[in-house]
Amino acid sequence: MIKTKQAAYTILEDGNVSSPGGFQAGGAAIGLRKGNKLDLGWIYSEVPASAAGVYTLNSFRAAPLLVTEESIRQEGKLQGIVVNSANANACTGEEGLINAYTMRQTFADQLGIPTAYAAVASTGLIGVQLPMDKVIDGIHSIELQGQADDFAHAILTTDTCTKQVAVTVSIDGVPVTIGGAAKGSGMIHPNMATMLAFVTTDAAIPADVLEQLLKQSTDQSYNMITIDGDTSTNDMVLVLANGKAGNKELHPGHADWEKFYAAFHYVSQELAKKIARDGEGATKLVEVRVQHAATAEEAGAIGKTIVASSLVKTAIYGADPNWGRIIMAAGNSGATFNPNNISVWLGDVQVVQAGKPAAFDEQSASKQLKQQTVVITIDLQEGSEEATAWGCDLSYDYVKINASYRT
Amino acid sequence: MIKTKQAAYTILEDGNVSSPGGFQAGGAAIGLRKGNKLDLGWIYSEVPASAAGVYTLNSFRAAPLLVTEESIRQEGKLQGIVVNSANANACTGEEGLINAYTMRQTFADQLGIPTAYAAVASTGLIGVQLPMDKVIDGIHSIELQGQADDFAHAILTTDTCTKQVAVTVSIDGVPVTIGGAAKGSGMIHPNMATMLAFVTTDAAIPADVLEQLLKQSTDQSYNMITIDGDTSTNDMVLVLANGKAGNKELHPGHADWEKFYAAFHYVSQELAKKIARDGEGATKLVEVRVQHAATAEEAGAIGKTIVASSLVKTAIYGADPNWGRIIMAAGNSGATFNPNNISVWLGDVQVVQAGKPAAFDEQSASKQLKQQTVVITIDLQEGSEEATAWGCDLSYDYVKINASYRT
């Protein structure tokens, strides 16, 4: 039985990063991507906003991450973000770091904001220096009054569609809006990926509270998706809160905190799921729900291992109800559980009952794997904790895209 | 410069598991695989042999592993091994366990050896009960004087070729021979995989020494290969030493121990590399050498992470010298090193020098990735430890094979 929870927030049609009050966003084509595609995006807040970020755990952290982290560390505030696609400015040494600083300075000057209030992000090919003449000319061409949809397009690489969402929620009786845009596609794995996500809100909330909120929400959204098990050098989620809504400052003791958290978390999960669904070569979103685990960590580990398994992913692509691979992946997760208690469902078709094959109709099970969203449920009968992980199938197109990314 | 070490052992042409004295092996077609392929294999030693095994670390351990481990635990001896392909007898509950015991008993009776001297192994589809009538009839049809090549064929699943090797080495002035056969293909990952390997030797060596030798050699051979990052429920390496060569009992204090170890380890590495080269859909063997690491564990972790990365594997398939992905994978390994010191070579073409792009010719680098064996070298400049990992590229055929394995 599905429990219907009354959502305290409203999803905005065509919502985006400029849905919250006081934000603008736009994009331009500056010649970094082939075919004159949009490749430079920017977000601007009319007033300095509380800011927080989470960053890749890869040992190689790209130059723009170092520069953006430095900006946020100064006052916990940002007023503008500039993003380029096609080039990650990663593994580019000192020259790359200088280029990221130059990019930040040029952008801050163009908007007339303090250097420390500007953030930079890059995504694309690793190990090539940014063509700074194009980047600088591009930033000089930025004019406010842009289209948020252009921003969403400008940050893409091998993505096939934009990823945008916004919700509104009543806090202290005033409407507070949260918007977001993200890009994903390859190198997507728990603990950040070549994944960039930008969240804006007109809520009033201090930077330290925002940081805790972002970390907590990230652990159950962006960090629960995987495309190919690789973690990029450039992953980053940034959130800006400019206080334009006029609510009282939010913190965990605030009467409407749970409502705000739920709305914020919805935005995180929606962006994460949109990234997973649009994984390189993906034809389906895969959602793995792990129930009755001893700990939430073990539930998460099992979910992520299943959704990351190439054998599970290819079986889903082929709509083959080969549940042995799901069991095998669960057994590789490092989690401790009794294999004789595990049950598995593909959609609503039970395929494993207490560690043994359940009697099921192959056709019905295969049909469950042909849905646009494939749901796999694992019940461990070990405890009361749960977790959900998201990913996608592994198709011929994944190989095609990645065998010739540069050429 | 390549250092040529005088090998103390000789590689036997067409060597196999019956090359050592006192061993026989064979195979039969008993109707488990489609197209009347060989699907039941056996090895027999004329006298009880010292025996040791290493097993999968997957939480789900298939029934035949439990039964074989029980056999070896009793006296540290084996005299016969029976293997079926097409069905893994994994996740089959109590019925599966009873079937594995029945398989062992039937085989022991057929050969006239004690039950505790018989081992069983299975590989293939998970979660389906063995058709015991076929298995029992098949075992009853076993006659000694078989062909070792038939054994090597009978243990295959999606493998495209047999994997066999044998070497001879002089110990105490008498020739000692070591032979092996293996199967691999999918679900191959460090710490065992759907990988079965069987090693025979006529050396005299006690079971406890043999077990230590096997574990040590496994860590630098079978456990250093990966095909798709998944670890099977059925992986097992068994070694039998029947003492027929007439050498003095081997142990680490024996004057010829190093020679014997080198010969034994060559067999392990050759079988492991043959498995990696024949990974599902593979077109090339990939060898990743990590040098000057702080610890051997970190060197191994970096090598395995690189060779397991889908993005690295697809780039190698496409002969795209996209070294950023190699760097990215190294950064995801969990090893600690200074990114500014790392250097990378594709074959003999240096592509990264101290953390930054080296000037290199794209054509030459791409040519390195078109070899039958692609060698990637990573130099960390952190210490003096090293490790080598093996894998394969990721092609369209991997997807093809795995999207329709059962159908």
From TrEMBL, chains A, B:
Keywords: Acyltransferase, Amino-acid biosynthesis, Arginine biosynthesis, Autocatalytic cleavage, Cytoplasm, Multifunctional enzyme, Transferase. Pathway: Amino-acid biosynthesis; L-arginine biosynthesis; N(2)-acetyl-L-ornithine from L-glutamate: step 1/4; Amino-acid biosynthesis; L-arginine biosynthesis; L-ornithine and N-acetyl-L-glutamate from L-glutamate and N(2)-acetyl-L-ornithine (cyclic): step 1/1. It is found in: Cytoplasm. Its EC number is 2.3.1.35, 2.3.1.1. Its main location: cytoplasm. One of its GO terms (biological process) is L-arginine biosynthetic process. InterPro entries: Arg_biosynth_ArgJ (IPR002813), ArgJ-like_dom_sf (IPR016117), ArgJ_beta_C (IPR042195). The record marks 123-124 as: Involved in the stabilization of negative charge on the oxyanion by the formation of the oxyanion hole. Substrate binds at residues 157, 183, 194, 280, 402, 407. It comes from the Bacteria. The active site is at 194 (nucleophile). GO terms for molecular function: L-glutamate N-acetyltransferase activity; L-glutamate N-acetyltransferase activity, acting on acetyl-L-ornithine as donor. GO terms for cellular component: cytoplasm. It catalyses: N(2)-acetyl-L-ornithine + L-glutamate = N-acetyl-L-glutamate + L-ornithine; L-glutamate + acetyl-CoA = N-acetyl-L-glutamate + CoA + H(+). The record marks 193-194 as: Cleavage. Catalyzes two activities which are involved in the cyclic version of arginine biosynthesis: the synthesis of N-acetylglutamate from glutamate and acetyl-CoA as the acetyl donor, and of ornithine by transacetylation between N(2)-acetylornithine and glutamate. Heterotetramer of two alpha and two beta chains. Belongs to the ArgJ family. This is Arginine biosynthesis bifunctional protein ArgJ. It comes from Terribacillus aidingensis. The lineage of its organism: Bacteria, Bacillati, Bacillota, Bacilli, Bacillales. The gene is argJ.
